[in-house]
Amino acid sequence: MKSIEQLCNIEIQLLKDRILELEKRNSQLTNLFVNGNTVIFRWRNNSDWTVEYVSPNVEHILGYTVSDFMSGKVKYAEIIYKEDLARVTGEVATAVEEQIQHFEHQDYRIFDSSGNLHWVYDFTTVIYDENGMASHFYGYILDISRRKTAEHRLAQSELRFRSVFENATIGYYRTAPKGQIYMANPSLLKMLEYDNLYDLINWNVAIGYANPADRRRFRETIEMQGVVSGYDSVWRTRTGKHIYVREYASVVKDENGNTIFYEGTVEDISLQKKYEEELLEAKEIAVRADNLKSSFLANMSHEIRTPLNGILGFTQLLSDDDLSSGERKQYIKIINKSSDQLLRIISDVLDLSKIEVGELTIQKKEFPVKQMLSDIYVTFSRIAEDKGLNLIMETNCEETETIITDEHRLKQIFMNLIQNALKFTTHGNITFGASLSGAVLNCFVADTGIGVPEDKRELIFDRFKNSDNEHAVKFGGAGLGLSICRGITELLDGTIVLDSEYTQGAKFIFTLPVL
Q1: Chain centroid, CA 336 distance in Å
Q2: Whether pLDDT at 103 is above 80
Q3: 334 and 282 in one domain?
Q4: 302: which of 4, 177, 357, 435 is 20 to 30 A away, CA to CA?
């Protein structure tokens, strides 16, 4: 029989092998940042922010080499735009003073090797030593110059619009208190789509208001205060078109205090209103996008920390010599489960990133489709049984019937959808399958779970937008699976949809050409 020491050594070696596998996957995730558009830095906490590490992609983004920074030839503090340096330094000082671990800089500018300015987004983590002193900063910067250029163009466009609007010729009028027009200039005629003053004289301002209540409030205000300033309302033109107008008017009275007429100016602000509505809509979209990003990052941080804490915590517990063999096996089981969970998250991030940049490889080959479905059934049948669920496979494909597509990616779609179904189904069935119709493979995964609310059905395939879903928060998950399914399906020239007529839970249908 093997001694306890031998068993422990075997288990420790298995753990080391698992950790090496995890480190390999982590290196793949690091490679994503090293070769991507995000530059990773590690700075020392000193006056020059000496660079101790910088990812190699800094050269094609900023033109500097890794050696430029590591040798001290280029100092990070010296490439920050002078007008931004004090603010950036202040933000760092504040974070350190308040013992903040993670923070975002306000966007700032840095010079590249050719002297060109780049706007960057900077997310920094402060590393504190055992005495609570900030020793290093670790973070990443993202070049956002294109976004800043677009924002500048938008601002310039707004200025041009305002210039045209503010210098436009405005309408002028005089009316009787009841609305008959005494006088109108050509601009007002044009605004109201009239050809001559005679026709306009037969028109009454009171019926020109689309909402009669606006006219009543106008008269009450001008009679009480003597003036109306910036009064917005909607008018009808001769053809019935509605226009937004802004009025500035005053009342003219005789020596006895009786009103003779109103006189004032009218601006057509329809374009401005439209622009304001577009700006409001754009702001709402930006706020929603920012909230989704924040929610996604918070959820992803939680999803990564959970298994990582399990790995770190139980790895430390394994060092206890007093552990029984049963306890040690249980801890190793938890570490392995946490490692698998972390590997799945990393794989999802890598796959989604490759899909985003068009680098996910597709390798089509011929294989028996029924065998693939059977393999998937074997993989999940025990898991479904442990949850008290029935896993059902349906197909009209014969054992020898083959298709041509990427077997690994097709299986990945099925597995992501089934994992989702297992997550959101507490009782009943999970059914999956595929059928051939000519050169098209029709596939589906259906469950009797909680389903998808109507207001979420248009969003479920979008990345980030599942991270703030109350069900995602309750049941866990990074919210990337459906985005990956859609990306892979499109790469395989197929389509994937949620069956809106299926009411027992959720049913996803995807079709692929297989020749």
Answers
A1: 32
A2: yes
A3: yes
A4: 357
Tell me the two tokens of residue 83: 């007008």
Q: Between these two residues, 16 and 205, which has the higher pLDDT value?
A: 205
Q: What is the DSSP letter of 398?
A: -
Does residue 353 sit within a domain?
no
DSSP character for 105?
A: P
Q: Using CB atoms within 10 A of its CB, is residue 385 exposed (0-12), middle (13-18) or buried (19+)?
A: exposed
For residue 251, the SS3 value is strand
CATH number of the domain that residue 442 is part of: 3.30.565.10
**57 and 179 together in one domain:** no
The reported pLDDT for the residue numbered 3 is 63
β pairing state of 390-395 and 429-437? parallel
By C-alpha distance, which of 340, 349, 318 is closest to 21? 340
pLDDT given for residue 96 in this prediction: 92
Quick one: tokens of 6?
A: 């031998």
Percent composition of the chain: helix, strand, coil (DSSP 3-state, to 5): 50, 25, 25
**What is the residue-averaged pLDDT of the chain?**
82
- CA–CA dist 282, 278 (Å, integer): 6
DSSP E strand boundaries for 11-89: 38-44, 51-54
Domain boundary among 315, 345, 375: 345
Our count of domains for the chain comes to 4
Beta-carbon contacts of 415 under 8 Å, excluding residues fewer than 6 positions away, are 376, 379, 380
Average pLDDT value for residue range 426-444: 93
Average the pLDDT over each of 76-90, 267-281, 379-393 and give the range with the smallest value: 267-281
Torsion angle (degrees, nearest 10) of CA 217, 281, 293, 32: -160
175 and 261 within one domain: yes
Residues 6+ apart with CB under 8 A from 482: 416, 420, 460, 461, 466
CB neighbours of residue 109 within 10 Å: 18
- At 189, which helix (H) or strand (E)? helix 186-191
Q: Same domain, yes or no, for 450 and 426?
A: yes
Nearest CA to 139 out of 156, 122, 127 is that of: 122
Q: Indicate the residue type of 165.
A: F
Share of the chain above pLDDT 90, in %: 32
d(CA 73, CA 76): 10
pLDDT given for residue 352 in this prediction: 65
For the chain, percent of residues with pLDDT exceeding 70? 80
- pLDDT higher at 51 or 11: 51
In terms of Cβ atoms closer than 10 Å to its own Cβ (0-12, 13-18, 19+), residue 58 is: buried
For residue 333, the enclosing domain spans 1-31+274-345
Asked if residue 420 lies in contact with residue 497, where contact means CB atoms within 8 angstroms, the answer is: no
Q: Compute the average pLDDT of residues 482-507.
A: 87
Q: Which two tokens stand for residue 264?
A: 């004032």
